[in-house]
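Quick one, C-alpha cells below. Sequence please?
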C-alpha cells in the first residue's frame, strides 16, 4: 500500500472539495481541551455558594435543557456528516463530482445505521472498561498499593482492546455507507477488514497519530501568531481585545477543525477502498 500516496490524495480531496470541511467540522469540532486558570484578583472572586445562590432553579434547568439540545443537535449533525463525508469521498474516487446535498442526503438516509453502529461500539468500549478497570477497582479496595500497581497491566490491556474496537468502527461505517450493509453486517465487515489488514491498519493508525501531533503543533503555532494583534489590542482596550479575539478564535477553530476532519476521514475512506481493491465503477454502489 502506498501510504504516502494515500496521504497526498486525502490532502488533495480535502483542499479541492472544500465543502467537505462542513462535514469535517461536525466530526471534529468540540474535541479540544481546556486550559487552567491563573491568579484571579480578589475583586473578581465569588464563592460557588454565592454564585449558585444568585441563580434561580428555573434558570439552571433552562441552561441544562439548552445544553442538552445543543449536544443532541451536534450529535445528529456529527452522525449525518460521518455518512456524508464517506459517501462523497467514495464518489470522488469513482470520478464523480458529488455536491454537498448528495452527502447530506446519504448521511440522513443512513442515520440510524451509523447511530446503531456507534451504540454497539460504545457497548464494546464499556465492556472493555469493565474487563480491565473492574478488577482494578476491586484490587484498589483490597490494597491501595496493589491496585495502583495493577494499572501497569490494566491500562495497556485496555488500550489493546480499545484500538481494535476503534478501527472496527472506522471500517464498519465505511462498510455501511459504501457497501450498503446493515448494522450487524457492517460490524462484521469491519471486523473482517481489520483481521485481513491488521498490519496496514496499525500503520495507518500510526500515520493518523503522527498527523494529529503535526496538526496540533501547527494549530498552536498559528493560533499564537493570530493572538498577538488581539493581545496588543487588549492592552489598549480590554473589552474589544477579548471580544474580537474570541470571535476570530472561534472562526479559526471551526475552519481548522473542518479541514482536519475532512482530511483524516478521507484518509481512512481511501485506505478502505484501497484495501478492498474496489474498481472505480464498483465504488459507491448502495443497495
Amino acid at each position: 500500500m502506498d501510504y504516502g500516496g494515500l496521504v497526498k490524495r486525502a490532502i488533495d480531496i480535502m483542499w479541492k472539495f472544500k465543502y467537505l470541511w462542513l462535514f469535517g467540522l461536525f466530526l471534529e469540532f468540540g474535541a479540544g481541551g481546556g486550559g487552567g486558570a491563573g491568579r484571579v484578583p480578589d475583586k473578581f472572586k465569588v464563592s460557588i455558594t454565592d454564585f449558585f445562590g444568585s441563580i434561580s432553579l428555573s434558570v439552571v434547568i433552562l441552561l441544562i435543557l439548552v445544553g442538552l439540545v445543543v449536544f443532541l443537535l451536534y450529535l445528529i449533525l456529527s452522525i449525518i456528516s460521518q455518512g456524508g463525508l464517506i459517501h462523497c469521498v467514495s464518489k470522488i474516487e469513482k470520478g464523480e463530482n458529488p455536491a454537498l446535498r448528495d452527502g447530506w442526503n446519504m448521511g440522513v438516509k443512513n442515520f440510524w445505521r451509523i447511530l446503531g453502529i456507534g451504540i454497539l461500539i460504545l457497548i464494546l468500549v464499556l465492556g472493555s472498561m469493565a474487563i480491565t478497570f473492574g478488577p482494578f477497582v476491586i484490587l484498589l479496595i483490597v490494597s491501595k498499593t496493589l491496585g495502583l500497581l495493577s494499572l501497569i497491566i490494566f491500562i495497556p490491556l485496555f488500550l489493546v482492546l480499545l484500538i481494535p474496537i476503534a478501527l472496527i468502527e472506522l471500517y464498519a461505517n465505511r462498510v455501511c455507507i459504501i457497501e450498503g450493509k446493515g448494522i450487524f453486517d457492517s460490524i462484521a465487515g469491519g471486523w473482517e477488514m481489520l483481521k485481513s489488514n491488521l498490519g496496514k491498519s496499525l500503520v495507518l493508525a500510526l500515520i493518523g497519530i503522527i498527523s494529529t501531533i503535526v496538526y496540533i503543533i501547527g494549530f498552536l503555532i498559528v493560533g499564537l501568531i493570530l493572538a498577538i494583534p488581539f493581545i496588543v489590542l487588549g492592552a489598549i482596550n480590554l473589552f474589544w481585545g477579548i471580544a474580537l479575539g474570541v470571535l476570530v478564535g472561534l472562526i479559526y477553530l471551526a475552519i481548522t477543525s473542518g479541514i482536519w476532519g475532512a482530511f483524516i476521514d478521507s484518509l481512512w475512506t481511501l485506505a478502505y477502498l484501497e484495501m478492498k481493491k474496489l474498481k472505480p465503477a464498483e465504488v459507491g454502489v448502495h443497495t
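The chain has ten helices and no strands. Residues 94 and 280 are 4 Å apart (CA to CA).
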